[in-house]
């Protein structure tokens, strides 16, 4: 007897390795583009699907779930999942999964690259050379803060924060951190010092690197008041989510030279418009949300998302569920 294959939607062009896994067991329909799937198209294409391999640019809310009555699993190709309405999914018995672990090192590497680039003015200096402005060795040109032996403040000591601490330890930095929970391993391994108060991190650190998820409680966590606490030569690094930082307050503080620099791989909004005031500042480095963009990491993210979908379709526990309550209901 021929049984119809489960119908799965993939919302973007993605690495072949993960897609091949899905195709072995499912009828895959794909929005085969490098652009975001339009909302209406997403609704239409989801109508007959049981699973979706989704991107952080796809917003899954009540309206979308209404348009997809047969949906059982959404595998988000990201560790962050602020694009998914978790309560709504759980209420409807839709399993949600994300891609933790496989992108931790690549993201920590990138946070580190931003830290180095912002402190040592790598991008402005490369532009200066290209513009033919390099006339002589300049004892007073392009001075930046020391990285080695400086104090790094980590806001959010989860998996990625932990790996950033490991890198900082190699650079002989003092590490302080704020998180709702203490990280005994980072304290033991890298001498990380716990601060119960975020303000203390902001006041003391020479570099502040953000690694918190975006939630109502972290929206504009770094606001005008907190930016004003930072040291005059401090550097802010954001590889978390753009909306963790108030962009207007950041502009004012950078434009006034009240901190040394900011480097951000994430912005509010995303993409940041090319005429956004932050992009006019020489001490603000912005990249296009590429922290996990390595060949291997993207393959692994796609494979993990595919395996999560296949597990749910086979009645098994997915590897990295977001809302395990639904699995209890499904008894898997
Ligand atoms: C990317 O931002 C992710 O959350 O994986």
List keywords for this structure.
12 strands, binds glyoxylic acid, five-stranded parallel β-sheet, alpha/beta, 332 residues
Description:
Helices cover 37% and strands 14% of the residues. The chain is α/β, with parallel strands linked by helices and 332 residues long. Strands 8-7-6-9-10-11-12 form a seven-stranded parallel beta sheet, sandwiched between helices. Strands 2-1-3-4-5 form a five-stranded parallel beta sheet, sandwiched between helices. The protein is globular, with a radius of gyration of 22 Å. 42% of the residues are buried. It binds glyoxylic acid (GLV). Residues 56, 78-80, 103, 292 line the site of glyoxylic acid.
The N- and C-terminal alpha carbons lie at a distance of 27 Å
**Percent of residues in helical segments?**
25-40%
Q: Characterize the biggest β-sheet.
A: 7 strands, parallel
Separate helix tally:
13
Strand content: 5-15%
Overall average pLDDT? 97
